Automatic annotation (TrEMBL):
This is Gustatory receptor. Signal peptide: none annotated. It is a multi-pass membrane protein. InterPro entries: 7TM_chemorcpt (IPR013604).
Amino acid sequence: MCPHTLDVVSCLYPAYIYSLLMGFAPFKIERKGPFVEIKHCKIYHVLSTLFYTLSICFLVWMGYTKMGYYHLQSPMQRFINFLYLLLVAGLMSVNVLFNKLHTTSLVTLWRKICHIDTLIRNRGIKLNYRRLMYSTSTFCIVAATLHTCYIIFLVSIQNYKDPLFSGSVYFALNFAVTGFACVSCSFHAFFLLIGHMFEKILEYMKHRVLRSFLLDSDSKSKSIIDTADLHQELCELVRHANDVMSVQMLASFAVTFSVVTLQIYSMVNAFNIKKVDYNFVLSSLFCVIILLQEKVILSLVSRRCMGMVSKD
């Protein structure tokens, strides 16, 4: 139970709600007076695991059976579409597996963030919670909207013999892609907040700790030791966040590389036929832009956070 953590929790709340809706938040946040309590939710954990297990099986089955409904022009295109679905299903599997195995670590991560925020507040360091909440909310909304728009556009340009079946295919695919974006939103929220904490502590060290040299030796030593302890807590938080999300993000970047490569190949191949399908080319280009833009943002946030660590 962590006191005075409403503001820091509100910064992460958009990512938490997104994860909760997608089945990736096996805990609940309760506010009791001046405290915020983070507790495991076993029923949610079991139901979400069962749901995703069935969804992954269903998605792979549809990826296999849908090939007969496509009006494709070559076996290569059929293979690319099937591989694309397998990659998305594989990423969903990785996300689910590590979310379920790291449930305790994820709860611990949230509690550590609450604890460090309390230490920062006690030292009079003010975080820009409003800006953090705005950035997190914007990233979550834009990510979910763009991925959904891509799926809707993809559905609109397809020509299926069975509309009901095609709707089921792309509903499952949209759910998988939205889960893909959910992990990115959580990574963005955590490391944006941690990077901001490092930034404010660096400012504090420049202005407050340097002033302590003008004071007596006891006050100077205490100020330096307190700041060093806080820095150590933040370094451990970065290490813990990396342990929780590293495999998921590695899988996310691997899938992005594979999908972007396949989409670029599809665009190049589309121009080699007599009648170019510009809708197909546009959808592939849309997908490449979304995925690359997302990964560039995540890389910049991670780089900024690691840069703050090296400065300290």
